[in-house]
Structures are given as C-alpha cells and as structure tokens.
Amino acid sequence: MKKTMKVVKYLILAFILFAALLAFLLAKWYTDRYGDTGFMSIISTFMTPWKGCSNNLSISWKLNALLPAGILTLILYPIFFYRGKKFNWTIRKDGKNPVQLFPIKLRLSNIIFTVMCTTLVVVAAIMVRFPEFVVDYYFDDTKLYDDHYVSPDEVEITFPEKKRNLIYIYLESMETSFMSKEQGGAQKVDMIPELTQLAQENVNFSHNNGIGGWPRINHTTWTSAALVAQTSGLPLTMDLSKIEIGKFEGYLPGATNLQDILKEQGYYQTFMCGSDANFGSREEYYYLHGADHVYDLFTARKDGLIPEDYMVWWGFEDSKLFDYAKQELTEISKKDQPFAFTLLTVDTHHIDGYYDKSCCENQHSEQYENVISCSSRQVKAFVEWIQQQDFYENTTVVVVGDHQSMDNQYFVRNVEEGYDRHVYNCIINAPITTEFSKNRVFTPMDLFPTTLAALGCTIEGERLGIGTNLFSGHPTLAEELGLKYLNDQITKHSDYYVDHFIED
User: Fold this and answer.
1) Which residue in 58, 133, 257, 327 has its CB near the most CB atoms, within 10 A?
2) What's the rounded mean pLDDT across residues 315-338?
3) Cβ(405)–Cβ(173) under 8 Å?
4) 249, 177, 157, 182: which is closest to 459 by C-alpha?
5) Which H helix or E strand runs over 294?
C-alpha cells in the first residue's frame, strides 16, 4: 500500500510538471501566433466546437507546445526527484535546542520544482491576460449596455418598397496594412491593388482621409466574434456561469440581429464558408437567427463540388468557394423574394495562408503575401461577376475583413512597430451616399445599422445595438465616449448583457 501511494505521488508530481510546462508553452505559442486577442477569445475557442480546425494549426500547437512539454518533463523529472540531501529547516534557540520550522523535510530540488512550476503558470496567465480578465469580468461591472444599447425591437426600421438584395463577403484577416505606405498601408508595394481600387471607387469608411477601417476592438478579434459584432451590434462575451463545454447552443439567443430583421422582412438567407460551419458555432449562430440554409465543406461534398474525401487547409480552397457561391447565387436569385447571401473566405487564415497554385503567383517574398494578393484578385473577379448578373441592379454588396490578421509573426517581421492596423471595408452599389465616410472612429458593431442603411432602410435614431449608422454622420460610441474607454468597458462583466442577450 505504501509503495502504491508513493507511485501515485510521483505520478501526480509528473503531471504537475507536465501541466505547468504545457501551460507556459501553449501561452507562448498562442501569443506568438495570434498576437493579443484577449483571454475571451481563448474561452470562446474552448467553449465552442473545435471540430473542423485546420490540420495546420493542430500540428503547430502539438509540435510547439505538446511535444516539447512532454520531452522536457522526461528530462527534468529525474533531475528534480533524485534522492538528494534533505534540508531540515531548523534553527537553534538560545544556541542549544533546535526548533523545526516546517513539519517536513525538503530537498532543494523540491523547492526549485515548486518555484519553477508556479512561475511557469503565473507567466502563462500574464501572457494571455488572464489576471486582467478575472479583474474585469468578476470584480467590475459595466453599464455600457444599460445606458447605450438600442434594441432593434424598440425602434422603427423602414425598408424601401422594393427590398434590395444583400451579398455580404467576409474576407478572412483582411486589413488595410496590406496596402502600400503611400496609400496608408504598411507595405513597400500594394499587395491588394484590386481591393484598394474597390475601396477607392465605392464607399469606404476610414479612420483617415484615405482608405482605412476600424482598429482592434476587444471581444471582436476572432471570426465568430466578428460575425456576431457586425450583425448584432454587440461584442461577443461568454457567460461562464451558464455555458458548459460541449453543450453550446448558439450565440446571443436573446439579441435581435441583422438576420432576425431580414427574416421578418421575408428575405431568403444563406451562409457559406469553405470549412466546417460548425467550427466556432457559426452554423448555430446563423440558424438560431433565421438563416434558411448553411453551405460548408459537407454540403460542397454532397452537392458534388468536391469529392467525398476532399480536404485541404480548412476544407476547400477559395477558388472553389467562389465557384460554389456563383452556382448558389444563380439559383437563389431566381426565388420570388429578396435574398441575403453571406460568404466567408478562408485561404488567408494564419499560419501563412493556403497557397492555391491555381491562383497564387510568386510576386512577393513570403507565402502569406502571395496568398493575400491572390485573395484580392479573386474578390475583384467575384464582384465583377456579380455586377454582370441581372440581380445586381437591386443588390448591395458589402466586402469587409472579419478582423485583424492573427498571423502575428508575419507582422513582427514585416511591419514597423507602432503601425496602427485597421480592418478593410467597402460597400458597393448602395442606394445612398454619404459625406461622413472619412476621419471616423468606429467599430465593427457600427456595421450592423450601416448595412441596413446600405439596403436603403431608414433607422429611427440611427443606432442599433451599440452601433451607429455610419452613413448618417451621427457620432459613434467610439467617437462619443472615446475608443479607449469603450474598449475598456467591453471587457467588463455586464448583468444587462447576460440577462438580455445570453439568456433567451
């Protein structure tokens, strides 16, 4: 029995060492690869389905965290737990009688082991901003939503007599920093000239006088959160007291979003991506809020676009995704009702993007740059195809990045420190114009009412969620409250948010 307990003890110590090493190496891998996305993005990742994740990322974290943690455990464990000299930790009282300070005898290696494991865990927590998250979420409460949230159910939204179609294109990780420095970007040459041209010739909301977008906004820095922010006017916050791992049922069931509004107006709505739509619970979000159909890797196989066992990158490449989109848009546009078609690209996802030989050219020194340029050409070609269709005259096209790129090491290597990165946006064929598109401070939440305005809708008060219709010239919350203050408030806990949006 004594021998068994000793074995159990050493197994527990081995697990503690492995866990501490893994925590540190995972935190380092995550921050090196993703940059500063905030701890809520990590929570969201683990709270929602991970099935469908790219093999590239799966292999990366195993090679850079799991495997090294295992190897280091095997190396360090014998060093820490050899039978070395024990310290009695005693002192002499009056120079005669010894007094034991601790009830057990400790080896120096035990002390080093404890200090090292503790330090690894603490440093890992700091790297992913866990202490900041705990303070904000559990010890501070914001009144941001109590004071500023505008429910779409409580304001009048008027659609034009002839409802316009909507094509909403999310470009994975697309930002204006891929433009040249002369154009306000961060590169020597413009890597996205086609997207630059689209922004110049159409409506682009910008933080400056040229082509620009919105900066990093807390709780919107990963794809699922970006989809939620741009369609509901809300950042994505998870209620940790209500969500169980493996039992996630969809984002913000209590919030009325763009899809809910369009459903009520008789729109046929679809969402299409070139990966498993269940990853990050994107499928649940769109079906929960009124989507009629979701297209993804599995429907593409079923529809014969790709073979049954086809799998590259996250699913299938964007060149096939745009062909799929053309096929389905042609059918959807024949319906006797307005449509809203949402498309999400994937080739430009980190790490380094997917190099599609049918599209990519070696114009630049790095693969990621060539993938970005390829995406720009593909999007321009797809927009030109849309413009040639009969339905285009009555269709608004929104082209936006979902969030800043998470390929952190690329920016460490290629972008000057301190450069202020912004997410790309462009609105094409809107029935209205604006004088208020430049020198704005705005967030992805503002895209919610702005998209409705781009469909020709009028919005009482010009605000929905915590977003503002950018066409209107009304100050955004970021302009009214200050971007830093708004970003700080978003990270804090809100009873209003939980009660009204998470709890249906």
Assistant:
1) 257
2) 96
3) yes
4) 157
5) strand 293-295
d(CA 122, CA 282): 33
Q: Which two tokens mark 304? A: 């014969």
pLDDT for 46-104, tens place per residue? 565 555 555 666 677 677 778 888 888 888 877 776 654 444 444 455 555 555 444 44
What are 92's two structure tokens? 């002499």
Question: Token pair of 441, please?
Answer: 């401070």
Q: Where are the alpha helices (DSSP H) in 35-66?
A: 39-47, 55-61
Contact 252, 503 (CB under 8 A): no
Query: Counting Cβ atoms within 10 Å, is residue 394 exposed (0-12), middle (13-18) or buried (19+)?
Result: middle
Token pair of 394, please? 């009555």
Q: What is the pLDDT of residues 258-273, one digit of tens each?
A: 999 999 999 999 999 9
**How many residues appear in the chain?**
504
Out of 111-125, 167-181, 265-279, 357-371, pick the least confident.
111-125
Pair 204, 389: CB distance under 8 Å: no
User: What is the C-alpha to C-alpha distance for residues 43 and 241, in angstroms, rounded to an integer?
Assistant: 12
CA distances from 89 to 84, 100, 110, 118, 202 (A): 15, 6, 13, 21, 75
Report which residue type is found at 266.
G
